Amino acid sequence: MSMETTAWMQLHSVMNAQQDRRPFARATLRRIAGFARPHRRRIVQFVLLSVVTALLAVATPVLAGRVVDAIVEGSDPGTVLSIAAIIAIIALAEAGLGLLNRWLSASLGEDLILSLRTAVFDHVQRMPVAFFTRTRTGALVSRLNNDVIGAQRAFSNTLSGVVSNVVTLLLTLAVMLSLSWQITLLALVLLPVFVVPARRMGARMARLQREAAGHNAAMSTRMTERFSAPGATLVKLFGRPDEESAEFAARARRVRDIGVRTAMAQSAFITALTLVSALALALVYGLGGYYALRGSLEPGAVVALALLLTRLYAPLTALAGARVEIMSALVSFERVFEVLDLKPLIEERPDARQVPHGPVAVEFEKVRFAYPSADKVSLASLEEVAALDTRGGAEVLHEVSFRAEPGQTVALVGSSGAGKSTIAQLVPRLYDADSGVVRLGGVDVRDLSAASVRETLGMVTQDGHLFHDSVRANLLLARPGASEDELWDALRRSRLEDLVASLPDGLDTVVGERGYRLSGGERQRLTIARLLLAQQRVVILDEATAHLDNTSEAAVQEALAEALEGRTAVVIAHRLSTVRAADLILVVEDGRIVERGRHEDLLAADGRYAELYRTQFAQGREKHVDVAEVA
């Protein structure tokens, strides 16, 4: 390896390493060892191969010197050819071992990435909804990509580099000192001229790199927000295109300027080190040649020293930056472990039960609930804030009690922000109650397995979410084994059969990000089709028809009536006409149930429900669609 190549590698290492000087905990090393333990056999093989490769690297310059000595001494040509053959064999061995070592390095690194990514992904999936409402998606994805890859470098690059460089350095020094201690010491004197500029220039270029990364991240965030369907619509309606363009162009120009400065700094640095390399070789040839002419040094030793010089500077330079690489890898591990150490608020018990067979009742008994504070569900680094808000959440549900009997429809009505959706989210354990009990089929939901709850309960939210995938894939999310006929039956019952049949690729048509290639009503009806396909025993509708026009709502209400038949349903509705015939209507205000009863009884009581009902009639918002009546 030439000194120019070594310089580039050292410069790249320092530029891309995370400049973090914090002391690291031994616990971090123990956890790293835990991830590495399953691969310990390959790690040992990897280290041994690195040692052997280092031995072969030092052997070649020594043999090259022997060839020169044999030529000068006029030895038998067979001797020269034998040494040359040994050099060739060593070169072949180095090539083969290098490929094998690289395979071990790559497989170790990729296996580590697989283990870490899988661990983080599985852990994040277990986090409560509150975690996702606070976390920036890009910051979380970065943990799965950049930080995991940074941790992988500890095994694929740093481990082999430290081992092979230490062995190479010790062997090279030993051989050089045995050949000429004077030349060796003078060569070491030039080392600071080689290493110090690399570290200083690397640090300077790292700052430029981070600044450029910041500008690129800002541009990326801006593009992501502006180029999404709702973002682009907002910009077209209220944005200022000229100012948007000017701000983007200013950042882009700054990135361009940094790129020019970085390129010139790199060229100046490499040119300077190339000069140092030439001076070092001149020193070896000049002083070594002088000693050889005086007879105090063999000619072959001069050649060997010149070849060994690169074997000396390369590991010394690499080891000088090893600490930065190691600390960078450890910081990456710590950032990954930081996510893994965030405890999920909702845990499945080891002895979790199944929801009992048959019709299922939904019951709330004296339930109190407050949304968790940020420090319990999130990380400052994932929210990209200096410190998390540690204040406790205010209680939003107070002593909520009711029971939806098997097959009944219970409606929750009330003002916006009264707590209706919060009540609905406690049933599928998107959150857990702080006190009191939520039961499904007479069993505390905290005692049920997550899989059993998913099989029992289906939910359609006000903003039904669709993945950027095909109609088929979005439907199969509810029931992966559904047949083609069952998919079309669900679409027919949700009044989407004709629409999907008219699409270019039918069921395989991609709906776009969040389903934006469909209208609001079509998106909602597709989420209802997903519910119909799942055929769960309990259904929660959270403003499920909020985005539908009169015609679509009537059609979907008919489908919902069919889906709700014989099932327990909790329906959240803003339009009171949709729940007039519910078996039980609960009026929720400020987290409390202030009224309960059937439609006629509540009107007769002339309380909050009657007030809401009269207000809707006065505003002309009443519709003549009633899911409960249709049912």
Question: How would you characterize the overall build of this protein?
Answer:
The chain has helices spanning 3-16, 26-36, 40-72, 77-125, 129-134, 137-179, 181-189, 191-227, 229-238, 241-294, 299-320, 322-340, 374-377, 380-383, 420-426, 450-456, 471-476, 484-493, 497-502, 520-534, 550-564, 599-605, 608-618, 627-630; strands at 362-370, 395-404, 409-414, 435-440, 443-444, 457-460, 538-542, 568-572, 584-589, 592-597. Helices cover 64% and strands 9% of the residues. It is built from 24 helices and ten strands. The termini are far apart. Strand 7 (538-542), helix 21 (550-564) and strand 8 form a beta-alpha-beta unit. It folds into two domains: 3-340, ABC transporter type 1, transmembrane domain (ABC transporter transmembrane region fold); 362-380 and 399-464 and 537-630, 3-Layer(aba) Sandwich (Rossmann fold). The strands form two sheets. The protein has a six-stranded mixed β-sheet, with helices on both faces. The chain is an alpha/beta fold and 631 residues long. The longest helix is centred in the middle third of the chain and has 54 residues, at 241-294. Residues 17-22 and 621-631 have low confidence and may be disordered. Helix 3 (40-72) runs antiparallel to helix 4 (77-125) and helix 3 (40-72) packs antiparallel against helix 11.
Total domains: 2
CATH topology of the largest domain: ABC transporter transmembrane region fold
- Give unreliable regions as ranges: 17-22, 621-631
Q: What is the number of helices?
A: 24
How much strand?
A: 5-15%
CATH architecture verdict of the largest domain? Up-down Bundle
- Overall pLDDT: 79
Q: What structural category do the secondary elements indicate?
A: alpha/beta
Q: How many whole angstroms does the radius of gyration measure?
A: 35 Å
Shape: elongated
Helix content: 55-70%
What oligomeric state do these chains adopt? single chain
The N- to C-terminal Cα distance equals: 80 Å
The first-level CATH class of the largest domain is given as: Mainly Alpha
Spell out the CATH superfamily of the largest domain: ABC transporter type 1, transmembrane domain
- Sheet with the most strands? 6 strands, mixed
